[in-house]
Amino acid sequence: MIVGAPFKIALAVFSAGGVVGAVSYATVETSSAVEDELPTNDIEKGKTVNYRIKVKTTGRGLKSASLSCDSKTNHHATIKLDPLEGKEKVKVSCTHSSNEPAREVQVMLDKEKLVCSRQSDEENLKVFQCSILNKALDFDLSEIVNKQLILTW
User: Fold this and answer.
1) Which domain of life is it from (predicted)?
2) Which whole-number Å values give the CA distances from 79 to 19, 51, 62, 93, 125, in the listed order?
3) Which run of H or E residues covers position 64?
């Protein structure tokens, strides 16, 4: 039994060292794996992004307008939709998010839903097509101001 006790102590020390070694190794591997699995769109954080917003108009097919969203450190430049009260209009403007931008942005209106879906995605140009079921949309050019567009129907 006297021989067994030192052996048990040595085994316990060796086991503890092995566990610490394994934990350290796993931490390094986990850290590396996380970096490798980051979405490629994280490279867009902190960059200006240009948006092209397309709508189907009555009799004129597709029409588009551009919106440039400024950069903000460690954030994605993206778009948001805000209904204008009492009018058949929605403001499309820039916002910033720490999360990756959505592939679809939508807003509920009185009885309808305006949906803007991403059609294409390049490093600094995102193309969205906006629609309301069974409605033609257009841009209110008289109300376009810096960093926002107005959609009407």
Assistant:
1) Bacteria
2) 48, 8, 20, 5, 12
3) strand 61-69
0.85 cut: is pTM over it? no
Q: Which two tokens stand for residue 97?
A: 């998010």
Tell me the C-alpha distance between 12 and 33, whole Å.
Answer: 31
Q: How many CB atoms lie within 10 A of CB 11?
A: 10
Q: So where are the chain's domains?
A: 4-37, 42-152
Radius of gyration of the chain (CA): 27
The C-alpha angle with vertex 14 and arms to 11 and 20, in degrees rounded to 5, equals 140
pLDDT number for residue 2: 54
pLDDT digits (tens, 9 = 90+) for 54-111: 999 988 789 999 999 999 999 999 999 999 987 899 999 999 999 988 999 999 988 8
Q: For residues 66, 70, 76 and 78, what is the CA-based torsion angle, rounded to 10 degrees?
A: -30
Nearest-angstrom CA–CA distance, 97 and 107: 17
